[in-house]
Amino acid sequence: MSARACADLIGLQAWLFQDGRILRGPVPISIGDEFDPTPPGRYAVEWKAKDWVSREYGTPMPYSVFFAPGGIAFHEGSLQTSSAGCIRMERANAAAFFDHLQVGDEVQVHSDTPAVG
Fold this sequence. Notes:
By secondary structure, this protein is mainly beta. Helices cover 9% and strands 44% of the residues. It is built from 1 helix and 9 strands, in the order ββββββββαβ. The chain has one helix at residues 91-100; strands spanning 4-8, 13-18, 21-28, 41-44, 47-53, 60-68, 72-76, 87-89, 106-110. The chain has a 5-stranded mixed beta sheet with strand order 3-2-1-9-4, with helices on one face. A 4-stranded mixed beta sheet has the order 5-6-7-8. It is globular and about 35 Å long.
């Protein structure tokens, strides 16, 4: 099994998995707001760019791993403010996600609380 990632939009955490084991996580994340929400769902990594700059906002997006329509990606960025829909994380975590995730790897983004019992 290849590396894959999971993000919890409620708990503001993400995990990186490889071969069924947690490689990294939970790590803190920042997500979109009500105007530019981070879309929940199941996706596959589409492409990656280590030194990407947003075409829409002109802001750096280091260690970008694009996985959802509209340019949604994991990338390095501030955890103190909302993103424009991306999942931002601290540099070391963004670099680990960038290094381990490959095109085609599954990404799950959850916005519901887990079932109990």
